[in-house]
Amino acid sequence: MTDSPTIRNGPGAKVFAALGAAVMVTALFAFLVVRYRDQQNPLTSIRASGIPASVSTPLANLMELAPVPHHSAPAFSLTDQEGRTLSLASFRGHAVVLEFMDPHCTDICPIVSQEFVDAYRDLRSQRSRVVFLAVNVNPFHLGVSDMASYSREHQLSTIPSWHFFTGSVTVLQGIWHDYGIEVDAPSPSADVNHTSTVFFIDPHGQERYIATPTDEHTAEGAAYLPAGPLASWGQGIALVTRQLVG
Fold first, then answer.
1. Gap between the Cα atoms of 101 and 133, Å rounded
2. pLDDT tens digits for 19-56?
3. Is the same domain home to 32 and 142?
4. pTM
């Protein structure tokens, strides 16, 4: 039996052909949109293994959160903003959030400081089980008063478990080396460029995760982070440390 010419070439066939073409165009458009989106945001669905389940993939990607091999965090003993000499080992039994900061920084350090303050608030009932530490990276400003002034200016003093540590240049350089922190401080008046990494250390003194803070800049060069990502960072720090203390 042959096909009827009226069915193959009639008005009904033209309608079906038009609908088929429309479906194909729509499908092609959808494919291109998805492909473009994936090319623009290649990490939106990528998740490193070992990330705490409580931390969403977008948040982990925002923080560049990554697990590290479990080994003891490099030891140190330094003096904090209150003039107290303490060792890293003295915080055993607590989760430790550690950064390296410049007490005269006007770029990323103040942003990280706000994230620490937000994280402390987000921890609520688990605040007493987490300590927040920073080690000085400015070899030209080593005084306890420098650490204290920065802590007050950026409200870090509102965190009871906050310690901004300093010491001699020689001792600090050894600690920077142990943690893989690069420091470029050409002169007392120049900006200190340094590696910005948040280290998450568990109550047994083992390094567990690292994260990489980021910032943006205005047209005038001032550093900032939009309110949404800033708040998310604080929440992320709290979520990771909650997982460490159990």
1. 10
2. 454 444 444 444 443 343 444 444 445 777 899 999 99
3. no
4. 0.81
